[in-house]
Write a structure and sequence with these properties.
Elements (H helix, E strand, L loop, with lengths): L1 E5 L2 E13 L3 E5 L4 H4 L1 H11 L7 E8 L11 H12 L10 E3 L2 E2 L5 E2 L4 H10 L4 E4 L14 E4 L3 H8 L36 H13 L3 E4 L6 H11 L5 H13 L12 E2 L7 H5 E2 L4 E2 L1 H4 L4 E4 L7 H5 L2 H6 L1 E5 L4 E5 L3 E6 L18 H8 L4 H5 L3 E4 L14 H19 L10 H7 L4 H14 L3 H17 L7 H12 L11
Parallel strand pairs: 3-4, 5-8, 8-9, 10-17, 10-18, 11-14, 14-17
Antiparallel strand pairs: 1-2, 2-4, 6-7, 12-13, 15-16
């Protein structure tokens, strides 16, 4: 057994071999790509290295299921063992609980390959009990209980271990799979205590960080939108080890030079970014910006400058936390559970609704500019905040980002206990949210009456429950208080700065 990757999702691949008398040849079937087809030379070389006589032997190797495309060199070890089973008089003790994930050299060395880390993680997810690997350092997978991770240097050591002849793990040099922690955005984060004024926006961003809610900041140039977004990443709680490895795996698949860190990722694509670079894909699909922001922050500055088509492609990932890319040759899925912070000017000149300067745009220009952000996208945003500039006379807050982060960490722990996993209030399914929210009949009637009065959609009603639940979690309450619900309603009543009237 081995592992095939479709995006970041693993598939169980059964490797079979048949050997018959014919001209010496090795054929691999089961929709292999070019890199797997080249494996036959490595397999034949390793079998010769093991002193097998392959004259007048045709080796046929089948990768099952046959209708799934396979890529990469991680099947080398499994294919070699399948052929070895047919050639030897003493078959190895292999069953479906054993998985082999390794590439081969021509002389029988087990070597790492691109995609090894996500393949190991998927093997753990699929429930294999023993996993054979090249000689790599797997100490970072200490959370995996009840699974044998066995790094070995050569094919001979692999066969000896399967025969029970060697019970000692390889103690030589282990290749590090994860590079040292690199300089990341946290070194340049703005601390919340250094931002003057904007108390309302700070409160909304604290709620958004605690529950994974999406936020849009609207205001004139220089009012602090980018600074608030930069400070937002400083209050996001640290990732768990398993989450950090999942993020690192995505960067690994995207071939991004990114070190391992427990801080959530921060991505800020330019507004000229194409839809493929944002969502993911290409001839050989790889993760896009929304997947690289998984478990972290995606900051879209100058939202009005993005193309409307590109922004509308965010709709499905914002709700499902996953993006599926379909191509003629294959369909792959990548996780994309990110928190979106977007910032935009209210009009092309930037001063529509400002108290400082007159707007020079016509009503049509303002309308055209704001319509780039479609209604369905706006409906998926939990907070839409209208900002004004705050001067040096405004006071800073005494609370640092670290203080707020501790409060957010406590709120997220409550959510993980409640939902039994890694879900947040902003991403959990409505059925589970409704079952665990603890709303009373009176509170449900209040939400219904307010939404009917303001003609808010059903999605907005669900959004009110999500925000109120997060506010209650920040308070450490297991029930949604009336004060938390009232605060959630007030956030939706705020003027957004996107209410354009003709003739201005």
């Amino acid at each position: 057994m081995s592992i095939g990757l479709q995006g970041l999702k693993g598939e169980r691949i059964r490797v079979e071999a048949d050997i018959r008398v014919d001209k010496e040849q090795c054929v691999i079937i089961g929709l292999p790509d070019a890199s797997i087809k080249e494996s036959k030379e490595r397999i034949l070389s390793c079998l010769h290295h093991l002193d097998f006589d392959l004259s007048m032997k045709k080796i046929t190797i089948h990768l099952s299921p046959a209708d799934i495309r396979k890529s990469g060199t991680g099947f080398d070890g499994a294919m070699l063992l399948a052929a070895y089973q047919e050639l030897t008089d003493q078959p190895l003790l292999l069953d479906d609980s054993i998985c082999v994930i390794t590439s081969l050299s021509l002389h029988g060395e087990l070597v790492p390959f691109h995609g090894l880390l996500p393949a190991i993680q998927q093997a753990l997810t699929l429930g294999f009990k023993r996993i054979y690997l090249p000689a790599v350092d797997v100490s970072y997978l200490s959370y995996a209980k009840g699974v044998e991770l066995i790094p070995l240097p050569t094919v001979e050591a692999l066969i000896a271990h399967l025969r029970g002849q060697s019970t000692l793990l390889f103690e030589g040099f282990l290749t590090p799979m994860i590079t040292g922690e690199s300089a990341r955005h946290e070194q340049h984060e703005t601390d919340f205590s250094s931002i003057r004024g904007q108390h309302q926006a700070k409160r909304a961003l604290e709620i958004a960080a605690a529950g994974g809610h999406h936020t849009l900041l609207i205001g004139p140039p220089g009012c602090g939108k980018s600074m608030l977004a930069g400070a937002f990443s400083s209050i996001m709680s640290d990732l768990g080890q398993e989450e950090a490895l999942e993020v690192y795996s995505l960067y690994h698949l995207a071939r991004e030079n990114q070190g391992m860190s427990l801080r959530p990722p921060y991505r800020q694509p330019h507004h000229s970014a194409s839809a493929i670079s944002l969502i993911g894909g290409g001839t050989y699909p790889k993760p896009g910006e929304i997947s690289l922001a998984h478990r972290g922050l995606l900051f879209l500055d100058e939202l009005g400058e993005f193309s409307r088509k590109t922004l509308d492609m965010l709709r499905q990932p914002m709700e499902s936390g996953e993006v599926t890319i379909s191509r003629v040759k294959q369909t792959v899925s990548y996780p994309a559970s990110f928190t979106l912070i977007a910032a935009t000017n209210p009009c092309p000149c930037g001063y529509y609704g400002s108290h400082e300067r007159y707007c020079t745009c016509s009503a049509k220009q303002v309308t055209t500019y704001q319509l780039k952000v479609s209604g369905p996208i706006l409906d998926r945003l939990d907070f839409v905040l209208s900002l004004q500039s705050s001067g040096l006379k405004e006071q800073t807050t005494s609370e640092s980002s670290l203080d707020i982060r501790k409060r957010i960490q406590s709120a997220r722990e409550l959510q993980q206990i409640r939902y039994g996993g890694k879900f947040l209030n902003g991403t959990v399914s409505f059925q589970q949210l409704e079952r665990t929210a603890g709303l009373t009949e009176t509170q449900l009637h209040t939400i219904g009456d307010v939404c009917f009065k303001h003609k808010w959609s059903n999605r907005t009603q669900v959004k009110l429950i999500r925000i109120a639940r997060t506010i209650a979690d920040l308070q450490g309450s297991h029930e949604i208080s009336s004060a938390a619900l009232e605060e959630a309603i007030e956030w939706k009543r705020l003027p957004t700065g996107l209410q354009v009237t003709g003739g201005e």
